[in-house]
Amino acid sequence: MSVKTTITSQFQQVAREQDRTLAPLSDDMRLVQSGLDSLSFAIIVARLEDELGVDPFSATDAIEFPVTFGDFVRLYETSAKK
Amino acid sequence: MTAGSLWGSITAAGRPTGRLHGTQAVLDLADLSGASCLGEAIEQLRDRSVVLLCKSQLVAALALLELDGIARRIVLCPPDLSAQHLPGVIAGAAADACVRDAAAPQADILKLATCVTAEPRLRRGAVSRRAERATEWILLTSGTTGAPKLVLHTLASLTSALAGQQRAATENIIWSTFYDIRRYGGLQIFLRAVHLGSLVLSDAAEPVTDFLSRAASAGITHISGTPSHWRGALMSGAAATITPRYVRLSGEIPDQAVLDNLRATYPEATVAHAFASTEAGVAFEVRDGLAGFPATLLGAPGRVELKIEDGTLRIRSPGVALRYLGEGAEPLRGADGFVDTGDRVEERAGRCYFMGRRGGVINVGGLKVHPEEVEAVINAHPWVRMSLVRARRNAITGAVVTAEVVLVEDKGGARPAAEALTRELADCCKRTLAAHKVPAMIRIVPALEVSASGKLVRPSA
Interhelix angle for B227-235 vs B256-265, to 10°? Predict the structure, then answer.
């Protein structure tokens, strides 16, 4: 499964669990408009660490916080390659 | 700070010039001298123990300004206080009156003698703001069983960190905070703002981008929130809408990444992180942009004294709370007057770093979770033998809750599959617990470590 597919399915799963309506996931969708709250993102990041083996948010290198869904996916794709 | 009421204190230096910006209205503080949000009903609240039960932060702010010095007690209920805990809070604070707004629970279910419904606006009329007593301020903080603990403060203890700060005629300070002002961190900002300038209140229902744009239009100069609030703001893409000169983090341990990102987003601003808790008050503020705090603060003489004992940070200052309320409440301070914060601190090369909470208390985005409360819910399931709930570090909310579960032996082959059981357990938690307390992941494990004394071994981090 690609990084993007894994991320997409986690967004959907967590939205379901948190009873939130997820906006259609396009690359230019702003995370703030995704329908998810910070707790949802926290859960997504924790689960992605288990699935992908990386947590780019906790990496020691300086990161830029992602603003769009595309940024979010790229952040994981870049960390997964390292 | 002089003695007397909050209103007396903010008008001591002359007519207040600031404003309160709510989502429903913007009000001039000075108007409170000849107008009221409570109206004549305030007379019914004189000398009473008043539960403040409003959805609107603006109504809560006005009620605080009007009731201090009038009511015997004000009990500050955050808007997410669950209805099941309300009777306990009312009993614990011996409350006999309430101030609510239209969106708050109906008065009749509260069984209180007096209930005043307030609106977020001021009505002109004769008002006496003469303070008659030192009102007790009751703040709520989470307890091990899920029921909130009642923490007793006074205006003097709450404003002790403001000592020496005065309104400068030339300086226009407009505060804002992501916090709710009925939590300690938000209340500190409210008290600062009404003394020194204006305040832009947040609203739980308002998207962060809207809040930031409202804050920007008001021209905010100072703003505070937890690291989780700030990560949310940074990820909203709208953080640069505002141009504060002072950015404050508190309520959680900030990591270097969030500090660096804020410094990059607000190059002109002072980025400070503060340590405060409902019980211990405001302890210190660090402005060097680095995580942790300088070890030189330990043992230094001053208004606030800090020390580490048994691995946790202890604080003594005029800002600590007086005591817990309620029957059989534990002591809040030690015999030497220090409050044990329960925060484990480690010193490395002259810098102190926070290492998590003793007793495993989990901080999810500034909200405390007691593992025992979550374990009790999981352990109530017939297929669960025991469980261990702990924190998992998280870059978005500081931590998330995770659970490890040992199942009852499957003798007759009737036990559902592991996947179905974890789903069921998650549903049980979701039904009974607040969202931040529900484990983000539940793992079924063959066994959990139990100590010689028969207690579940809790990892110290």
Answer: 50
Residue B243 contacts residue B213 (beta carbons within 8 Å)? no
Q: What is the ipTM of this complex?
A: 0.93
The residue of chain A with its CA nearest to that of B439 is A43
Mutation target vs B (from A43, A50, A79; most B CBs, 10 A cutoff): A43
> Where is average pLDDT lowest: A31-35, B255-259, B435-439?
B255-259
Domains of chain B: 6-344 (3.40.50.12780), 362-444 (3.30.300.30)
Closest residue of chain B to A18, computed from CA coordinates? B435
Task: Answer whether A39 sits within 8 Å of B365, measured CB to CB.
Answer: yes
Enumerate residues 6+ apart whose C-beta is below 8 A from B117: B99, B100, B101, B102, B107
Question: Residue B324's Cα: distance from chain center in Å?
Answer: 16
On chain B, the residues whose CB falls within 8 A of the CB of A36 are: none
Asked if CATH classification 1.10.1200.10 holds for the domain at A3-81, the reply, yes or no, is yes
Cα B14 from Cα B425, distance rounded (Å): 59
pTM of the model: 0.84
Check whether B2 has a pLDDT greater than 50: no
Residue B289 has a pLDDT of 92
Q: CB B235 to CB A18 under 8 A?
A: no
User: Cβ contact (<8 Å) for B237 and A67?
Assistant: yes
CA distance B156 to chain A (A): 35
Kindly report, residue by residue over B239-288, the tens digit of the pLDDT.
999 999 999 999 888 888 889 989 999 999 999 999 999 999 999 999 99
Answer whether A65 sits within 8 Å of B393, measured CB to CB: no
